């Protein structure tokens, strides 16, 4: 039903199809703005093309959860402003999409869950307001893993009870492997955000959200550029949370320039009074990140490669083995290193001190995030894992529900879980809700000291004794990872990451005889300390220009 509704909405508004010869397919924001300025296309026509492509590919991708009914009205108003000489910014009149956990008042905000079906919040997210104020046309809400993957361990990427399964445009076939043949795609979409629509040029770019890997993962696996900003640089207000300790929104685009443009529009002009971390990083002059887009930025740069655990196997002092990456991914990394050196960078091995520490109390790998599998993470068994996300999800989702006032569908997490159980026949819990059950197990008073200690431990070992220590010891501008390999680690410190398309690698194992998987995209990801986006964008842009490895899907 959801897919049919999206198709109907898109087809209804595409009646005013464009006769212009300008195509949005693989067009950059700069291309669109140039065509708009020269009068070769209007925003109305861009929206018409966008909605037509949504309708064309929805059955293959299932990439949208909602389409804006007023998309043409938004475009027409912005066309009139342009004609009057008013340009709001570099996204003026450009169709984009945002993840369906970001509040909008013209479309529902559901986080993909039936429990929030039809929920139209009473206020817009600060990010939504900033994008609209900057002239962006939000034409759609993208699919996502239900509750940003804080529903249950093992739920497939981009599956939700409201939206069903979504697919990666680089292979839209369903997974035929026993135990995986429940309808999910054969190629993962990356994580809870979706990059499928941007990869297929359904819109210019989109905004995802990330707690651990959900901007970098889907960007890497859809051959996109993803920017996960420093925690707080983009306001978190009005976004359905997993954890305000790590949640951030960021752009996903087909090139570094578009992602840099979008980040500048998303960042508040002045700190957001609803987000105390929004003053953490000073914005660049004019909120313009494109000033750092210099193709020679890798000359003289020092780049570090953490190999232990992130590339190569490592055995902890406890005897636990952490597995590295397959041979084809190692080969791809060496190709990227060669490209960096050819562009003028010095590349050195630079392992993370807190990963190599012999003392488990000082080793960031010695404790995993609490999960609900086999009872781990519940009271009496949560001393062996970190409770940061378990505790903060309950705290933050309850606060979000309270912010909705009379429009809140539930008072708290407990009521939401009970609703899912009561409506199980509606398929509310196809994979269960063990992770939410585990979070509701937390006591906001009695467990706070445990949470505080875990949070401080993670921030210290991921930040001061992790990324920062590696940067300082080796005098580095940045460190690099394969795709999302290091993102869960870096996210604990709230540090920024940027991934750039680079190659294709083998897509898993265990395929039936006669069934050949297609290779899956994998990017190269740059990371550094807090507020280092200007330098990371410069490095990422130079790497992109030196390699130009992105290839569009073949649909």
Write the layout of secondary structure elements.
Layout: H1 2-13, H2 29-37, H3 43-61, E1 64-67, H4 71-83, E2 95-99, H5 126-133, E3 137-142, E4 159-160, E5 164-165, H6 196-199, E6 206-210, H7 216-221, E7 225-228, E8 248-253, H8 256-266, E9 302-305, E10 314-315, E11 321-322, H9 327-342, E12 346-349, H10 353-356, E13 368-369, E14 385-386, H11 388-403, H12 413-422, H13 434-440, H14 448-474, E15 478-482, H15 487-493, E16 497-505, E17 520-527, H16 533-547
Parallel strand pairs: 2-3, 2-6, 9-12, 9-15, 13-14
Antiparallel strand pairs: 1-3, 4-5, 6-8, 7-8, 7-16, 10-11, 15-17, 16-17
Helix pairs in contact: 1-3, 3-4, 11-13, 14-15
Short description:
The chain is of the alpha/beta class and 555 residues long.
Structure description:
This protein is α/β, with parallel strands linked by helices. It has 16 helices and 17 strands. It has a domain at 2-292: Alpha-Beta Complex (Amidase signature (AS) enzymes), CATH 3.90.1300.10. It has helices spanning 2-13, 29-37, 43-61, 71-83, 126-133, 196-199, 216-221, 256-266, 327-342, 353-356, 388-403, 413-422, 434-440, 448-474, 487-493, 533-547; strands at 64-67, 95-99, 137-142, 159-160, 164-165, 206-210, 225-228, 248-253, 302-305, 314-315, 321-322, 346-349, 368-369, 385-386, 478-482, 497-505, 520-527. Strands 1-3-2-6-8-7-16-17-15-9-12 form an eleven-stranded mixed sheet, with helices on both faces. A two-stranded antiparallel sheet has the order 4-5. Strands 10-11 form a two-stranded antiparallel ribbon. The longest helix is centred in the C-terminal third of the chain and has 27 residues, at 448-474. The two termini are 24 Å apart. The model is unreliable at 14-19 (pLDDT under 50).
């Amino acid at each position: 039903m959801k897919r049919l509704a999206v198709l109907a909405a898109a087809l209804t508004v595409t009646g005013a199809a464009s006769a212009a010869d300008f195509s949005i397919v693989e067009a950059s924001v700069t291309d669109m703005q140039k065509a708009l300025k020269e009068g070769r296309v209007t925003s109305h026509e861009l929206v018409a093309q966008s909605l037509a492509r949504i309708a064309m590919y929805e059955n293959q991708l299932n990439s949208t959860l909602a389409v804006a009914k007023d998309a043409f009205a938004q475009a027409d108003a912005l066309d009139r402003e342009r004609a009057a000489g008013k340009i709001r910014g570099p996204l003026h009149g450009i169709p984009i999409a945002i993840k369906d956990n970001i509040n909008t008042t013209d479309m529902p905000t559901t986080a993909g869950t039936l429990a929030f079906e039809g929920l139209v919040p009473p206020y817009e997210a600060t990010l939504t307001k900033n994008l609209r104020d900057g002239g962006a046309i939000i034409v759609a809400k993208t699919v996502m893993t239900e509750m940003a993957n804080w529903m249950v361990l093992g739920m497939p990427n981009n599956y939700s009870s409201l939206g069903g399964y979504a697919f990666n445009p680089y292979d839209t076939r369903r997974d035929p492997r026993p135990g995986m043949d429940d309808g999910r795609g054969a190629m993962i979409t990356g994580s809870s955000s979706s990059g499928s629509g941007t990869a297929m040029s359904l819109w210019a770019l989109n905004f995802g959200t990330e707690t651990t890997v959900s901007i970098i993962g889907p960007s890497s696996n859809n051959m996109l550029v993803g920017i996960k900003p420093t925690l707080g640089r983009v306001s978190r207000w009005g976004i359905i949370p997993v954890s305000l300790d790590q949640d951030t929104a960021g752009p996903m685009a087909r090139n570094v320039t578009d992602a840099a443009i979008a980040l500048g529009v998303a960042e508040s002009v002045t700190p957001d009074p609803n987000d105390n971390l929004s003053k953490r990083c000073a914005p660049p002059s004019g909120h313009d990140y494109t000033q750092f887009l210099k193709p020679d930025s890798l000359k003289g740069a020092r780049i570090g490669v953490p190999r232990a655990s992130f590339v190569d196997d490592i055995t902890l002092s406890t005897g636990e083995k952490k597995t590295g990456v397959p041979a084809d991914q190692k080969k791809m990394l060496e190709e990227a290193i060669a490209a960096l050196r050819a562009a003028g960078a010095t590349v050195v091995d630079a392992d993370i001190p807190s990963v190599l520490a012999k003392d488990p109390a000082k080793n960031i790998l010695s404790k995993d995030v609490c999960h609900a599998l086999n009872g781990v993470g519940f009271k009496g068994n949560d001393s062996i894992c970190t409770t940061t996300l378990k505790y903060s999800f309950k705290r933050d989702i309850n606060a979000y529900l309270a912010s909705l006032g009379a429009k809140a569908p539930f008072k708290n997490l407990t009521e939401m879980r009970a609703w899912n159980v009561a409506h199980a026949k509606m398929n509310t819990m196809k994979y269960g809700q063990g992770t939410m059950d585990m979070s509701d197990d937390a006591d906001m008073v009695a467990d706070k000291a445990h949470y505080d200690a875990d949070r401080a431990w993670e921030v210290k070992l991921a930040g001061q004794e992790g990324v920062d220590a590696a940067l300082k010891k080796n005098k580095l501008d940045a460190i690099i990872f394969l795709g999302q390999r290091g993102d869960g680690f870096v996210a604990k410190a709230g540090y920024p990451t940027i991934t750039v398309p680079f190659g294709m690698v083998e897509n898993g194992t265990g395929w039936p005889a006669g069934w050949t998987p297609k290779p899956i995209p994998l990017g190269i990801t740059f990371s550094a300390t807090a507020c280092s986006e200007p330098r990371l964008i410069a490095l990422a842009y130079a790497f992109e220009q030196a390699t130009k490895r992105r290839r569009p899907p073949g649909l």
